C-alpha cells in the first residue's frame, strides 16, 4: 500500500499537474487550496441538510465534482496545458446554477435589507460557503490576470468560464442560505443600520 506522505513538500514546495514545482505560498496554490476549502465546507453542508430536510439537493453533490474539475485546471502548469486533457466545466453548468437560483428565488420574499448570516447552523454554513467562494473567486481573478500571458489559448478557453462559474456559485450559496431558512421557517436576520 502506498504511503500518504511523500516528503517532497517538506521544504515548502508542491508539484503542479505537469510536474513543475512551486512554493506552497504561491497564488496559484492559494486558488486551488481555497477551492478545496469550499468543497470541505460543502461536504459539511450536505451532511447537515440530509439530517434536517427531506429533499434531494443534487446540485450540491454535482457542485463538489465541478469544484474538483476546476481545482485540477487551476493546479495545472499553464505552460504545459496543451499536454493534458482535463475535465472542464462549460457554460451549461453556469446556466444550471442560474436556473437553480431562479427556482429558489421564486419561493422567497423580496429582499428589502442586507441579511446577517445566522438564524440556524445550516443557514450560517451556506453563508460560510458564499464567503469562502467569494474568496476563491478573488484569488482566481488575481491568478488569472497574472497567468494569462503564459497560458495562451488555454487561458482564453478555461479561465473566463471558471471566473463566471465561481461568481455564480457564490450567488447560488447566498440564495441557498435564504431558501434553507425558508424551508425551515427561520426568520432572516436583517441588517438594519442604526441611525
Topology:
Blueprint lengths: L12 E3 L5 E3 L3 H26 L5 H17 L16 H16 L7 E3 L4 H64 L4 E3 L4
Helix pairs in contact: 1-2, 1-4, 3-4
Main features:
195 residues, mainly alpha, Hypothetical Protein Ta1238, Chain: A, two-stranded antiparallel sheet, 6% strand
Summarize the structure.
Its EC number is 2.5.1.17. This protein is mostly helical.
Q: What report would you give on this structure?
A:
By secondary structure, the protein is mostly helical. The protein has one domain (22-77, 86-104, 113-185): Up-down Bundle (Hypothetical Protein Ta1238, Chain: A), CATH 1.20.1200. The chain is 63% helix and 6% strand. It has four helices and four strands, in the order ββαααβαβ. The protein has a two-stranded antiparallel sheet. Strand 1 (13-15) and strand 2 form a beta hairpin. The longest helix is centred in the last third of the chain and has 64 residues, at 121-184. It is elongated and about 50 Å long. It holds the Pfam family Cob_adeno_trans. This is Corrinoid adenosyltransferase.
Amino acid at each position: 500500500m502506498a504511503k500518504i506522505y511523500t516528503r517532497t513538500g517538506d521544504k515548502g514546495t508542491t508539484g503542479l499537474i505537469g510536474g513543475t514545482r512551486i512554493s506552497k505560498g504561491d497564488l496559484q496554490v492559494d486558488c486551488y487550496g481555497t477551492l478545496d476549502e469550499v468543497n470541505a465546507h460543502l461536504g459539511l453542508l450536505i451532511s447537515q441538510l440530509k439530517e434536517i430536510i427531506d429533499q434531494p439537493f443534487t446540485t450540491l453533490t454535482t457542485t463538489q465534482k465541478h469544484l474538483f474539475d476546476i481545482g485540477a485546471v487551476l493546479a495545472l502548469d499553464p505552460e504545459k496545458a496543451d499536454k493534458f486533457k482535463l475535465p472542464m466545466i462549460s457554460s451549461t453548468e453556469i446556466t444550471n446554477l442560474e436556473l437553480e437560483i431562479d427556482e429558489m428565488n421564486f419561493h422567497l420574499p423580496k429582499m428589502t435589507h442586507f441579511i446577517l448570516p445566522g438564524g440556524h447552523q445550516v443557514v450560517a454554513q451556506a453563508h460560510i460557503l458564499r464567503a469562502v467562494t467569494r474568496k476563491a473567486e478573488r484569488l482566481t481573478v488575481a491568478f488569472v490576470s497574472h497567468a494569462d500571458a503564459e497560458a495562451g489559448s488555454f487561458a482564453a478557453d478555461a479561465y473566463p468560464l471558471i471566473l463566471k462559474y465561481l461568481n455564480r456559485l457564490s450567488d447560488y450559496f447566498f440564495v441557498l442560505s435564504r431558501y434553507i431558512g425558508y424551508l425551515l421557517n427561520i426568520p432572516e436576520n436583517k441588517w438594519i443600520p442604526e441611525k
